[in-house]
Design goal:
Elements: H1 15-25, H2 28-35, E1 44-47, E2 66-69, H3 75-85, E3 89-93, E4 95-97, E5 103-106, E6 108-112, H4 125-130, H5 139-156, E7 163-167, E8 172-176, H6 179-182, H7 186-198, H8 205-209, E9 214-216, E10 221-222, E11 227-228, E12 230-232, H9 234-237, H10 251-254
Antiparallel strand pairs: 1-2, 1-3, 3-9, 4-5, 6-8, 7-8, 7-12, 10-11
Bound molecules: zinc ion (ZN).
């Protein structure tokens, strides 16, 4: 039974559904294309059942742990490990490492989630937390977070030229691929996050400042809402509706 209030049509995925998705539907070609935007070898991560409490029984002890996948020869091996864990969430590490595994930079990102939106019906994040709905959201919040993403993208265009928007399953991410963005210091990242917040954008400061370095892997399954994480072009965002858009509805829900 789902703990969080979600828009109609969104719900937790079962283990069997996760397995079907990662076996039949998860596109390594599309993932590979996304990874071309990144630099160097990528580390992946999964969480099996931190929020949904749905996980393979044999991994009960590690159900809430972030498991790093950094030993693999090719993406098919990454997929094999994902199928072994059947996670509610899959991520990649935005840090860039050199051949000695030292961090040399980090992809800049902005994370906009519906719970941070103050909803005319459901109130602020504090109100939602009080009702234990910290990860719950409604259609209106989803629409409002989309509007914020469009405005934030336009705001960032003054400073950056290579950006992508990803529908993250609940809200949206803006990824920045400009070379100078990779090289930003922690202090500069914190300043950017604070400036953006001061302008009224409800971003997750930890993601932009860099202390939360994992970000949801495009084309993976968001197991809390049963939606596929997909890049969305800026021009189509206005019309984009993740409740009905075919690109983000997994096969197990589309019949
Ligand atoms: Zn609401």
């Amino acid at each position: 039974m789902a703990k969080y209030r979600l828009p109609r049509g969104m719900r937790y995925s079962t283990l069997a559904e996760r397995k079907q998705f990662y076996t039949e539907e998860f596109s390594l070609e599309k993932v590979a294309k996304w990874l071309e935007l990144l630099r160097g070898k990528v580390k992946f991560a999964v969480i099996m059942g931190r929020h949904t409490k749905i996980y393979p029984e044999k991994y009960r002890k590690d159900a809430g742990t972030t498991i790093i996948i950094d030993e693999y020869k090719g993406l098919d091996e990454v997929r094999d490990q994902i199928i072994e864990f059947l996670p509610e969430a899959a991520y990649y590490d935005r840090n860039v490492y050199d051949e000695n595994d030292r961090k040399t930079g980090q992809e800049l990102a902005f994370d906009l989630d519906p719970e941070n939106i103050t909803c005319p019906i459901h109130g602020s994040l504090a109100d939602k937390m009080e009702r234990h709905q910290g990860l719950g959201f409604c259609k209106l919040e989803l629409e409002m977070v989309k509007e914020q993403t469009i405005r934030l993208y336009e705001h960032l265009e003054a400073q950056f030229s290579s950006m992508k928007i990803v529908y993250s399953g609940r809200g949206f991410h803006i990824h920045v691929f400009d070379p100078e963005a990779y090289a930003l210091s922690t202090k500069k990242r914190r300043q950017i996050a604070q400036r953006v917040k001061a302008k009224g954008f409800r971003i997750d400061e930890w993601v932009t400042a860099g202390s939360m370095r994992l970000i949801r892997l495009p084309y993976s399954l968001h197991g809390l809402v049963s939606r596929v994480v997909v890049p969305v072009e800026k021009g189509e965002l206005e019309r984009f509706d993740p409740i009905h858009d075919k690109r983000c509805i997994p096969k197990f829900l589309s019949k």
